[in-house]
Amino acid sequence: MNEKNILSIVHIGKNKRIVTPLFLDSVSAGFPSPATDYLENKLDLNEHLVKHPAATFIVKASGTSMTESGILSGDLLIVDRSIVPKNDNIVIASVFGDLTVKKLRKKGSTLFLISANNEYPSIEVKEEMECFIWGVVTYVIHKAITK
User: Is 60 exceeded by the pLDDT of residue 23?
Assistant: First the structure.
């Protein structure tokens, strides 16, 4: 099964700012608490999500191979190309020129690109393969699920 996991790539630079209101109170995920009617400050998402602007990109995931890691089709993945990938990082890899999102796993001297869905096989990275790690996923943004 040939799955394309990445639809588009957008570079995030200093000129692309995402600023939104920031409320003083946090939102309870348990019992509700009264909301605050005033704002603390403006929140620049770049300050929280982008540590290395020149090396950070957003990619849009497509497919279901990473659902058990919380990555759904249509999610936006913030990818930092300046981070050295480590074992168990979720990465964007180029395999024979196609980008895919997978978990990086090293067993002994062998590297694997692991799917987070049992319906998809993992990829053993072999010497003869054209494969390189394009970047490390640092954040996943997905739409709230509504019914």
Answer: no
Structural domain boundaries of the chain? 6-13+54-141
- On whether the CB atoms of residues 46 and 53 are closer than 8 A, the answer is yes
Radius of gyration of the chain (CA): 18
State pLDDT tens for residues 41-76. Answer: 666 778 788 888 888 988 999 999 999 999 999 999
3-state helix, strand, coil in the chain (%, to 5): 5, 45, 50
Pairwise CA distance, residues 78 & 91, whole Å? 10
- Where in the sequence numbering do the catalytic residues fall? 65, 102
Fold assignment, 6-13+54-141:
Umud Fragment, subunit A (2.10.109)
